[in-house]
Amino acid sequence: MSNAEHLAQGRAPNAVRPPSRLRQLAAASVGNAVEWYDWYAYSFLAVYFAGQVFPEGAGNSLVPLLSTFAVFAVGFFMRPVGGLLMGAIADRRGRRTALTLTILLMGGGSLLVALTPTYAATGLLAPVVLVVARLVQGLSVGGEFAASTTFLVESAGPGRRGLFSSFQYVSTTLGQLLASGTAALLAALLTERQMGEWGWRVAFLGGALLSLLGLWIRRGAQETRSAEQQAADRPGLFEALRRHPRQSLLICGITAGGTIAYYTWTTYLPTYAQVNAGFDKGDSLTVGTLSLAFFALLQPLGGMLSDRIGRKPLLLGFSLGFAVLAVPLLHLVTDAFASLLLVQCAGMVLLTGYTAVAAAVNAEVFPARVRAAGIGFPYSLTVALFGGTAPYVGTWFKQAGHPDLFPWYVAGLCLVSFLVYLTLPETSRQKLET
Q1: What is the CA radius of gyration of the chain?
Q2: Which helix (H) or strand (E) element contains residue 121?
Q3: HSE of 87 in the Cβ direction (CA atoms, 13 Å)?
Q4: Closest of 382, 380, 405, 385 to residue 395, by C-alpha
Q5: Residues 298, 356: contact at Cβ < 8 Å?
Q6: pLDDT digits (tens, 9 = 90+) for 183-232
Q7: pTM, two decimal places
Q8: What are the CB-based long-range contacts (under 8 Å, 24+) for 289-293?
Q9: What string of DSSP letters covers 365-409?
């Protein structure tokens, strides 16, 4: 195109074409879905490979499962490190660079899980390999949330930050849905013995291959940091924590109730039903898949609603709802298919008040200079403390003979976040610095 044609269209000859918002949304969402497929496949398949990787305790069949969920929690404790390091890379080198690194790490970790040897064949090497794989994946997923949250919200048009924010959990849920659906399909096609011996490895190998697809799609993303931010001095690794301690603590309070409710309802509930109500393994995976599909459809609706009425009303509705209803809902779980489906879907409706707006609220708390690292570390630390430990805590309460305490634990954390949300200013109408 000639210079005259460029000028006729209102652009300078060498101007950079603005990024397509749809393309930006796809680059973040597809890659994020692949990341979370890899991450969540572990929790859905834990009941099948626990006995392969960990030895059974004397007369206690819960020991391998408890050990497997402990490794699940260990992976979460790498998330704050990933949030800090990858967040700093996103703030210093660009969001796109960080997103490329996170998906490479996740694919490598998934491949390592697929190749984990059995305890019978290699002894302690088996759990060591599994722990290393989860540490790598934890580093990746901690950085993924920081980078993709920032990238999504900065890519949004005026009055659309809530909608774009909701795709953080749309894509997360699609990845989780794919993991749940894959596990359910494998469980339907294979015998339980085949699933325990080799079927679970197929899902992780597929995740490693899908990571290459996500990497290819992300190559088309455009950087969202402004030219001024790119030209400015690069922030230090701990600058967000040092200069914005109040905002960092605020992220922790915003996240605490959301993460325990999220991981309980989307990840642990099928296992909770199996352990506490004798629910069938295959049926619990089917219920999880159906409820996750319902949950994904709710997210854009919640995001658009927050662009109209604000973030705060949705957050208050979510937290108060769970504080009041978590205990009765979890007590309604029986070995009946309809019971678990109803409980899981009811929780998904309440949970949308948090998940649809969490990315927007977090991004609106910090300035652009330290936004990714500022979100990444406190968010991932809180998720590690309360979200990643949810399956372990729930299983531990059961082993200790007090399964009824876990619902109260969920309700208590949601009440804490409700008090935090009461103090939040409404941020939906504020201009976002880029």
Answers
A1: 21
A2: helix 119-122
A3: 33
A4: 405
A5: yes
A6: 888 988 988 888 888 898 999 999 999 888 888 888 877 877 766 666 66
A7: 0.80
A8: 289/177, 289/180, 289/181, 289/184, 290/341, 291/341, 291/344, 291/345, 291/348, 292/173, 292/176, 292/177, 292/180, 292/266, 293/177
A9: HS-GGGHHHHHHHHHHHHIIIIITTHHHHHHHHHHTT-TTHHHHH
